[in-house]
């Protein structure tokens, strides 16, 4: 069976991704910051009888990413999914014109932008030796110049830059036969998306899994929504 490596696997979209791939029999390396308190993830791992391995990982810690890659140096990773993300300051000052919190912005960039780059760098060998050879990142339509809501400088810029990183990488990865994609999950009812979001977690991940399954060289470097729509940059 194929193997998924995912960050931010303990709640929200990451947790549901693990649940669905585990149900389909995949092997999973599920990374999260605090495995001890990841109750639902631990329950999935227990039911999967060894197919789901939980690894502690704060994606800001590049030494920890390298150590993880070393521990799994012989693995074949079919799908590397950069899912972990933060929105930055919300419900108040912090990422609007005139009140920018630059330290918080730096943290958003470390998690949403630099970590996916570092994960892809550290795991390229394991992805290249797999059958499916896919690297993906969960972006957002907020990172699109045509769709952005326009008032969340830290988050929007992190996703716009992530799009650039992944599309640039698509060109580099072609030599390894690796396909790369950026995806928007929709506005989803997670802690980040909040209850007023209009997409259920299960529907977003069901759609995204179809998009991951469709990834190929022709589509490498594209930006698509969970429902299959293309998103304008
Ligand atoms: N929900 C939406 O409407 C929506 C829309 C567009 C894009 N997205 C994107 O979808 C992805 C998942 O979001 P979500 O809605 O599932 O959000 P969520 O429920 O807030 O979950 C975020 C996940 O990221 C993890 N994370 C945060 N900082 C981390 C770090 N430094 N190291 C490792 N993991 C870290 C969290 O772990 P902890 O529990 O340890 O904090 C959690 O597992 C994100 O990239 C987000 O930007 C979401």
Main attributes?
233 residues, alpha/beta, Rossmann fold, seven-stranded parallel β-sheet, 7 strands, globular
Task: Describe it.
The longest helix is centred in the middle third of the chain and has 27 residues, at 102-128. It is globular, with a radius of gyration of 17 Å. Helix 4 links the parallel strand 4 (79-82) and strand 5. The chain has one domain (3-225): Rossmann fold. It is of the alpha/beta class and 233 residues long. It has a seven-stranded parallel β-sheet, sandwiched between helices. The chain has six helices and seven strands; from the N terminus they run βαβαβαβαβαβαβ. NADP nicotinamide-adenine-dinucleotide phosphate is lined by residues 7-8, 10-14, 32-34, 58-60, 83-86, 111, 138, 140, 184-185, 187-188, 190-193, 197.
Ligand list: NADP nicotinamide-adenine-dinucleotide phosphate
Radius of gyration, rounded?
A: 17 Å
In DSSP terms (H or I, runs of 4 or more residues), the helix count works out at: 6
Q: Topology as H/E string?
A: EHEHEHEHEHEHE
Percent strand: 5-15%
**Residue runs with pLDDT of under 50 for 5 or more positions:** none
Mean pLDDT reading: 97
CATH topology: Rossmann fold
CATH superfamily: NAD(P)-binding Rossmann-like Domain
Which class do the helix and strand fractions yield? alpha/beta
- Number of DSSP E strands: 7
Most strands sheet:
7 strands, parallel
In CATH, the architecture is: 3-Layer(aba) Sandwich
The total tally of domains equals 1
> What is the topology, as strand order, of the major beta sheet?
3-2-1-4-5-6-7
Helix percent reads 25-40%
